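Hey, sorry to bother you again with one of my protein questions. A protein chain has come my way and I'm curious about its shape. I'm sending you its amino acid sequence along with the C-alpha cells. I owe you a coffee for this, so here goes:
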Amino acid sequence: MHKYNKKPLFSSPHHEFYSVKDVRWNAELGGQKMESTLVEYFADEFNKKLGNGVDVRKSPKAIAKLKKQVKRTKEILSANTTASILAESLYDDIDFRSSITREKFEELCGDLWEQALVPHKELLKHSGLGVDDIYAVELIGGAIRVPKLQDFLGRKDLGKHLDADEAIVLGSSLHAANLSDGIKLNRKLGMIDGSSYGFVLELNGND
C-alpha cells in the first residue's frame, strides 16, 4: 500500500525477468486517508475541550500542525497498542495533548479495511485465480505496516523483504535505467508490463 493509494499487483516471475499480469487500485485509499480520519477525531476532541464554539479546522496553520503529529501517532500505533499526541500552540497558543489506543484507531477506520480488500478481490476475479493460487505476497508502502491491514489480507506468510518506504521509487528508477541507453547496468532486470484494461486493434487496408 502506497501512502496515497492501494495498488495490488499480480506478477509472474521468471529467470531474470517478470511479467505483470494485472493491476488493481483504489486511488482514494491509503495512509493519508487514515491520517485524515485521525485529524477529524482529534479536532473534535480539541474543539470540545476548548469550547466557545471554536472550530480548529478553520485554521490552516493549526490543521497543518495536527496533521504532522497525527502521522507520527499513526506510525507509533503500528508498533504499540497506545500512542500519545502533542501539538504545541495548536490554536491561540493553546497546547493539545491526548492519546489513543490501537483499538480505537481501528474502530475509527473501520470502513477502510473492507475497502482495502476490494482491489485484491477484483484482481483475483479478473485473473481467474483463487487465494491459494498466489505463491507469495510482498508488502510495500508505509501504510501497509498497519497491523489491521495485514490481518485483513488473511495470510501469515506476508513478505517483507523490500524496504516498504523506498521500494516503489527504487523500482521505478531501476525500470527507467533498464530502458535508458545512457545508463549501463551490469545486470538488467527485464519487465513485461501488463494493462488492467482490455483493448482491441483494428487494421484498415492491406498494409
Q: What stands out?
A: The two ends are 45 Å apart (CA to CA). The chain has six helices and seven strands. The chain has two domains: 9-26+111-192, 31-108. Strands lie at 9-14, 17-23, 82-91, 94-101, 137-138, 158-159, 190-192.
